[in-house]
Amino acid sequence: MQVRNLRTIAVDPGTRFGIEQAREFVDARRHPRYKLQVNIRIYPRNAPVVYGETVDLSESGVSAMLRTEVPIGELVRLEFTLALGPVEVQALVRQRIAFRYGFQFVGTHAELELIAHTCRGLATEQMAREHHVEGSTD
Where in the sequence is the domain holding 124, given as residue range(s)? Predict the structure, then answer.
């Protein structure tokens, strides 16, 4: 499992973003994102399961690379496994850039607690790694 905090934004190539709009977009994020690569299953309504791999995770959503199209705005069920255990959560398909999809969690507090706990652990791991790198005397 690879982990790191991402400070980049994903922009639809068909959209023109200025520097100010990009800053507003980043500031609008509710939670930091952490790089996380695990297998994910997406269950759209009235369609077969879609398989992919996550790119990053936050307390409010996940992004994933998929080979099969999933309609923007659709409510789907996501299944993936974190270090603390399996996750099954409802999410809205919020965006698509090529094969990368963004999903916003709409699950219950109980479903999202495991994700939030994982994100706190990933944040701690990242800070420890950054501190180690800053303090190293290579």
Answer: 5-135
